[in-house]
């Protein structure tokens, strides 16, 4: 299946405006059926599993997948369906909630930095360090609990403060990239109307009641503020080595298809291979084979 993946990727070139991006299936791809999409994702999962096997054996590169989005954007389902075929031995999913008291005693990037993947592994962030320029941007009063020099009140939080945090994040991701960590960032772009429908679904269907949180409704009141925060964060932190992918999230299956294709496209650019066997290792294999085939 041929898709123009560049349509969903922003590398920092030119101005970034969320309104210019799709949150539903683009007109050029509306002929795809859910059955076709599911079948294609199933094939992609197999290809991803094979690539992960080499990634894990080679232990030179690692993959960090960052998923961000508004409540009900489908982050959990995205991770479950796209990553279902990978080996759990080399995969970690980290969900970042409200910072703990211990985490607040460290710098704001500490808790995510220590969770970056080891060589050969895939780590998936369900939310991430970007919460520090999203939730904290919408609710700057949160910063007062971080014991920051010069931040004694909300009035001390200036545009320069956020510009410095964007710079910190770019530098962190650049350092990770130089050390073999491939950083891929996905914003699941959900419309406000679709979020409303998903919230109603959680309330009206008993088997989904557990998903509903009153806090989600409270945060929905800040929808415009969050859209501005995402727009600024993506625009300031997208780079060639750590791009942002804007994924249409109103249609869950189409979004999952695009994410699977983008991950495979990125892995395809890496020189992945199983470690070469040296002459000494081959000799050891032949010796072991001879011993195992001898009659006891």
From TrEMBL:
Keywords: Kinase, Transferase. One of its GO terms (molecular function) is kinase activity. InterPro entries: P-loop_NTPase, Polyphosphate_phosphotransfera, PPK2-rel_1, PPK2-related. Gene3D superfamilies: P-loop containing nucleotide triphosphate hydrolases. Residues 33-267 form the Polyphosphate kinase-2-related domain. Pfam families: PPK2. It comes from the Bacteria. The keyword Kinase applies. SUPFAM superfamilies: P-loop containing nucleoside triphosphate hydrolases (SSF52540). The keyword Secreted does not apply. NCBIfam families: PPK2_rel_1. PANTHER family: POLYPHOSPHATE:AMP PHOSPHOTRANSFERASE, POLYPHOSPHATE:AMP PHOSPHOTRANSFERASE-RELATED. This is Polyphosphate kinase 2 family protein.
């Amino acid at each position: 299946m041929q898709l123009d993946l560049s349509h969903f990727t922003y590398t920092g070139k030119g101005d970034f405006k969320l309104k210019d991006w799709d949150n539903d299936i683009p007109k050029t791809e509306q002929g795809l059926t859910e059955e076709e999409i599911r079948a294609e994702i199933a094939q992609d999962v197999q290809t991803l599993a094979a690539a992960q096997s080499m990634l894990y054996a080679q232990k030179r590169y690692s993959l960090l997948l960052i998923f961000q989005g508004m409540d009900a954007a489908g982050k959990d389902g995205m991770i479950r369906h796209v990553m279902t075929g990978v080996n759990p031995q080399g995969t970690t999913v980290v969900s970042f909630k409200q910072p703990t008291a211990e985490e607040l005693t460290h710098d704001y990037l500490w808790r995510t930095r220590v969770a970056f993947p080891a060589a050969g592994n895939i780590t998936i962030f369900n939310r991430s360090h970007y919460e520090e320029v999203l939730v904290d941007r919408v609710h700057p009063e949160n910063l007062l609990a971080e014991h920051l020099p010069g931040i004694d009140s909300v009035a001390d939080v200036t545009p320069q403060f956020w510009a410095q945090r964007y710079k910190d994040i770019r530098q962190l991701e650049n350092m990770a990239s130089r050390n073999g960590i491939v950083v891929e960032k996905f914003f699941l772009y959900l419309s406000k109307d679709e979020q409303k429908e998903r919230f109603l679904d959680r309330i009206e269907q008993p088997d989904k009641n557990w998903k509903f949180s009153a806090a989600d409704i409270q945060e929905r009141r800040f929808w415009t503020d969050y859209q501005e925060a995402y727009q600024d964060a993506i625009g300031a932190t997208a780079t060639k080595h750590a791009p942002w992918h804007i994924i249409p999230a109103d249609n869950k299956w189409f979004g999952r298809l695009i994410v699977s294709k983008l991950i495979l496209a990125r892995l395809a650019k890496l020189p992945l291979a199983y470690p070469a066997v040296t002459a000494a290792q081959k000799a050891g294999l032949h010796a072991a084979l001879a011993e195992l085939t001898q009659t006891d």
